[in-house]
Amino acid sequence: METTIPQVLASAVRRDPASPLLTFYDDASGDRTELSGATLDNWVAKTANMLVDGLGLGSGDTAAVTLPPHWQTAAILLGVWSAGVTAKINDPESADALFTAPDQNTVTKAPDRYATGLLPFAMPLRELPDGFADYVLEVRQFGDHFPGAPVAAEDRALGNRTHAEVIAAAQARATELGITPGGRMLIDATPYFDPIDWLVAPLVAGASIVLCANLDPVKTNSRVESEKVTLVVA
After folding, report:
1. pLDDT of residue 90
2. Is it the case that residue 106 has pLDDT exceeding 90?
3. What whole-number distance in Å separates Cα of residue 74 and Cα of residue 131?
4. CB 69 within 8 A of CB 209
5. Helix pair 5-15, 163-177: axis angle to 10 deg
6. Can you tell me the mean pLDDT for 50-75?
7. Per the database record, which ranges form the AMP-dependent synthetase/ligase domain (predicted)?
8. Number of domains into which the chain is organized
9. Distance separating alpha carbons of residues 232 and 98, to the nearest angstrom
10. Rounded-to-integer distance, Cα 34 and Cα 21, Å
Protein backbone atom coordinates (compact mmCIF):
# COMPACT_ATOMS: atom_id res chain seq x y z
CA MET A 1 0.00 0.00 0.00
CA GLU A 2 1.27 3.47 -0.86
CA THR A 3 2.29 5.57 2.13
CA THR A 4 3.61 8.66 0.34
CA ILE A 5 2.22 10.85 -2.44
CA PRO A 6 5.12 10.07 -4.83
CA GLN A 7 4.24 6.39 -4.45
CA VAL A 8 0.60 7.18 -5.26
CA LEU A 9 1.67 8.99 -8.45
CA ALA A 10 4.03 6.18 -9.45
CA SER A 11 1.22 3.64 -9.11
CA ALA A 12 -1.11 5.81 -11.21
CA VAL A 13 1.48 6.12 -13.97
CA ARG A 14 2.31 2.41 -13.93
CA ARG A 15 -1.34 1.43 -14.33
CA ASP A 16 -1.62 3.08 -17.74
CA PRO A 17 1.15 5.53 -18.72
CA ALA A 18 -0.33 6.29 -22.15
CA SER A 19 -3.93 7.11 -21.23
CA PRO A 20 -5.06 10.55 -20.07
CA LEU A 21 -4.47 11.00 -16.35
CA LEU A 22 -5.24 14.72 -16.12
CA THR A 23 -7.23 16.73 -18.67
CA PHE A 24 -7.60 20.45 -18.04
CA TYR A 25 -10.25 22.79 -19.45
CA ASP A 26 -10.62 26.53 -19.06
CA ASP A 27 -13.95 27.61 -20.48
CA ALA A 28 -12.96 31.28 -20.26
CA SER A 29 -9.89 30.93 -22.49
CA GLY A 30 -10.91 27.85 -24.48
CA ASP A 31 -7.80 26.00 -23.31
CA ARG A 32 -7.80 22.21 -23.29
CA THR A 33 -4.66 20.38 -22.21
CA GLU A 34 -4.49 16.60 -21.95
CA LEU A 35 -1.67 14.90 -20.08
CA SER A 36 -1.10 11.18 -20.10
CA GLY A 37 0.37 9.60 -17.00
CA ALA A 38 3.80 9.60 -18.64
CA THR A 39 3.56 13.25 -19.70
CA LEU A 40 2.43 14.43 -16.27
CA ASP A 41 5.21 12.37 -14.72
CA ASN A 42 7.75 14.14 -16.97
CA TRP A 43 6.59 17.56 -15.76
CA VAL A 44 6.69 16.34 -12.17
CA ALA A 45 10.22 15.00 -12.64
CA LYS A 46 11.41 18.26 -14.19
CA THR A 47 9.95 20.21 -11.27
CA ALA A 48 11.51 17.90 -8.69
CA ASN A 49 14.88 18.09 -10.44
CA MET A 50 14.67 21.88 -10.47
CA LEU A 51 13.95 21.95 -6.74
CA VAL A 52 16.66 19.45 -5.81
CA ASP A 53 19.43 20.08 -8.34
CA GLY A 54 18.65 23.68 -9.21
CA LEU A 55 17.73 25.07 -5.79
CA GLY A 56 19.24 22.54 -3.42
CA LEU A 57 15.98 21.94 -1.58
CA GLY A 58 14.90 18.76 0.15
CA SER A 59 13.46 17.37 3.36
CA GLY A 60 12.68 20.11 5.86
CA ASP A 61 12.32 22.81 3.21
CA THR A 62 9.04 24.36 2.10
CA ALA A 63 7.56 25.60 -1.18
CA ALA A 64 4.56 27.90 -1.28
CA VAL A 65 2.18 27.16 -4.17
CA THR A 66 -0.35 29.98 -4.37
CA LEU A 67 -1.93 28.95 -7.67
CA PRO A 68 -5.48 27.92 -8.55
CA PRO A 69 -6.31 24.35 -9.62
CA HIS A 70 -4.59 23.81 -12.99
CA TRP A 71 -2.49 21.13 -14.65
CA GLN A 72 0.66 23.17 -13.98
CA THR A 73 -0.33 23.47 -10.33
CA ALA A 74 -0.66 19.68 -10.24
CA ALA A 75 2.81 19.25 -11.75
CA ILE A 76 4.31 21.72 -9.27
CA LEU A 77 2.64 20.18 -6.21
CA LEU A 78 3.54 16.64 -7.24
CA GLY A 79 7.08 17.79 -8.01
CA VAL A 80 7.36 19.43 -4.59
CA TRP A 81 6.21 16.24 -2.89
CA SER A 82 8.48 14.07 -5.02
CA ALA A 83 11.45 16.21 -3.97
CA GLY A 84 10.62 15.64 -0.31
CA VAL A 85 9.69 19.30 0.13
CA THR A 86 6.64 20.45 2.09
CA ALA A 87 3.98 22.32 0.12
CA LYS A 88 2.21 25.34 1.57
CA ILE A 89 -0.90 26.72 -0.09
CA ASN A 90 -1.88 29.33 2.51
CA ASP A 91 1.36 30.51 4.12
CA PRO A 92 3.86 31.81 1.57
CA GLU A 93 5.70 34.30 3.77
CA SER A 94 8.24 31.94 5.34
CA ALA A 95 8.65 29.48 2.44
CA ASP A 96 11.99 28.61 0.86
CA ALA A 97 10.55 28.81 -2.68
CA LEU A 98 7.43 30.36 -4.16
CA PHE A 99 5.28 29.42 -7.15
CA THR A 100 2.61 31.99 -7.93
CA ALA A 101 0.81 33.94 -10.65
CA PRO A 102 2.09 37.35 -11.74
CA ASP A 103 -1.14 39.09 -10.76
CA GLN A 104 -1.01 37.92 -7.15
CA ASN A 105 0.32 40.29 -4.52
CA THR A 106 2.14 37.63 -2.50
CA VAL A 107 4.28 38.51 0.51
CA THR A 108 7.21 36.12 0.91
CA LYS A 109 10.77 35.91 2.11
CA ALA A 110 11.53 33.09 -0.34
CA PRO A 111 14.81 33.67 -2.19
CA ASP A 112 13.63 31.63 -5.19
CA ARG A 113 10.43 32.88 -6.80
CA TYR A 114 8.67 31.55 -9.87
CA ALA A 115 5.69 32.96 -11.73
CA THR A 116 3.48 31.33 -14.33
CA GLY A 117 0.58 32.75 -16.28
CA LEU A 118 -1.03 29.28 -16.56
CA LEU A 119 -1.29 30.01 -20.28
CA PRO A 120 -2.43 27.60 -23.02
CA PHE A 121 0.33 25.37 -24.45
CA ALA A 122 2.48 26.26 -21.40
CA MET A 123 3.45 29.52 -23.06
CA PRO A 124 5.89 31.77 -21.17
CA LEU A 125 4.95 35.13 -19.75
CA ARG A 126 5.53 38.21 -21.88
CA GLU A 127 6.48 40.24 -18.82
CA LEU A 128 7.86 38.96 -15.54
CA PRO A 129 7.46 40.65 -12.17
CA ASP A 130 10.71 41.92 -10.70
CA GLY A 131 12.55 39.22 -8.78
CA PHE A 132 10.75 36.32 -10.44
CA ALA A 133 11.78 33.62 -12.91
CA ASP A 134 9.35 32.08 -15.39
CA TYR A 135 8.45 28.60 -14.21
CA VAL A 136 7.69 27.13 -17.64
CA LEU A 137 10.99 28.37 -19.08
CA GLU A 138 13.13 27.37 -16.12
CA VAL A 139 11.66 23.91 -15.58
CA ARG A 140 12.23 22.86 -19.19
CA GLN A 141 15.98 22.97 -18.61
CA PHE A 142 15.82 19.98 -16.25
CA GLY A 143 15.61 16.28 -16.98
CA ASP A 144 12.32 14.45 -17.35
CA HIS A 145 13.45 11.57 -15.11
CA PHE A 146 13.79 12.07 -11.38
CA PRO A 147 15.77 9.41 -9.51
CA GLY A 148 13.69 9.92 -6.41
CA ALA A 149 14.25 11.48 -3.02
CA PRO A 150 13.97 9.91 0.43
CA VAL A 151 10.34 10.59 1.32
CA ALA A 152 8.74 8.92 4.34
CA ALA A 153 5.12 8.59 5.41
CA GLU A 154 5.79 10.75 8.48
CA ASP A 155 7.38 13.60 6.49
CA ARG A 156 5.29 16.74 6.18
CA ALA A 157 3.57 17.06 2.83
CA LEU A 158 0.90 19.77 2.98
CA GLY A 159 1.24 22.38 5.69
CA ASN A 160 1.51 20.49 8.97
CA ARG A 161 -0.01 17.30 7.57
CA THR A 162 2.24 14.35 6.80
CA HIS A 163 2.14 12.24 3.65
CA ALA A 164 0.28 9.54 5.59
CA GLU A 165 -2.26 12.07 6.86
CA VAL A 166 -2.81 13.59 3.40
CA ILE A 167 -3.33 10.13 1.89
CA ALA A 168 -5.78 9.20 4.66
CA ALA A 169 -7.69 12.45 4.10
CA ALA A 170 -7.69 11.82 0.34
CA GLN A 171 -9.04 8.30 0.82
CA ALA A 172 -11.83 9.67 2.99
CA ARG A 173 -12.67 12.37 0.44
CA ALA A 174 -12.65 9.83 -2.39
CA THR A 175 -15.25 7.82 -0.49
CA GLU A 176 -17.35 10.93 0.27
CA LEU A 177 -17.27 12.09 -3.35
CA GLY A 178 -17.90 8.62 -4.78
CA ILE A 179 -14.63 8.33 -6.73
CA THR A 180 -14.04 4.75 -7.85
CA PRO A 181 -11.03 2.87 -9.27
CA GLY A 182 -10.79 3.21 -13.03
CA GLY A 183 -13.32 6.04 -13.02
CA ARG A 184 -12.96 9.40 -14.71
CA MET A 185 -13.91 12.36 -12.54
CA LEU A 186 -14.98 15.75 -13.88
CA ILE A 187 -14.51 18.38 -11.18
CA ASP A 188 -15.33 22.09 -11.14
CA ALA A 189 -12.12 23.82 -10.03
CA THR A 190 -13.86 26.85 -8.52
CA PRO A 191 -15.39 25.42 -5.33
CA TYR A 192 -12.75 22.71 -4.90
CA PHE A 193 -9.54 24.64 -4.29
CA ASP A 194 -8.02 22.09 -1.89
CA PRO A 195 -5.61 19.81 -3.82
CA ILE A 196 -6.77 16.87 -1.72
CA ASP A 197 -10.14 17.16 -3.48
CA TRP A 198 -9.13 17.80 -7.07
CA LEU A 199 -5.76 16.02 -7.23
CA VAL A 200 -4.81 13.60 -4.46
CA ALA A 201 -8.21 11.97 -3.87
CA PRO A 202 -8.72 10.81 -7.47
CA LEU A 203 -5.09 9.63 -7.69
CA VAL A 204 -5.42 7.66 -4.46
CA ALA A 205 -8.69 6.15 -5.71
CA GLY A 206 -7.15 5.11 -9.02
CA ALA A 207 -9.21 7.52 -11.13
CA SER A 208 -8.31 10.01 -13.84
CA ILE A 209 -9.20 13.70 -13.69
CA VAL A 210 -11.03 16.17 -15.91
CA LEU A 211 -10.34 19.48 -14.19
CA CYS A 212 -12.50 22.41 -15.32
CA ALA A 213 -11.79 26.07 -14.59
CA ASN A 214 -14.52 28.64 -15.22
CA LEU A 215 -16.84 25.75 -15.96
CA ASP A 216 -19.69 26.58 -18.33
CA PRO A 217 -22.66 24.46 -17.15
CA VAL A 218 -24.01 24.39 -20.70
CA LYS A 219 -20.95 22.36 -21.77
CA THR A 220 -21.03 19.83 -18.96
CA ASN A 221 -23.21 17.17 -20.60
CA SER A 222 -21.29 17.14 -23.88
CA ARG A 223 -17.99 17.06 -21.98
CA VAL A 224 -19.15 14.14 -19.90
CA GLU A 225 -19.86 12.25 -23.11
CA SER A 226 -16.71 13.23 -24.99
CA GLU A 227 -14.37 12.60 -22.03
CA LYS A 228 -16.14 9.38 -20.96
CA VAL A 229 -16.69 10.85 -17.50
CA THR A 230 -18.14 8.54 -14.84
CA LEU A 231 -18.51 11.08 -12.00
CA VAL A 232 -19.26 14.82 -11.93
CA VAL A 233 -18.20 16.83 -8.87
CA ALA A 234 -19.47 20.38 -9.23
Report:
1. 83
2. no
3. 24
4. no
5. 50
6. 97
7. 12-88
8. 1
9. 32
10. 8
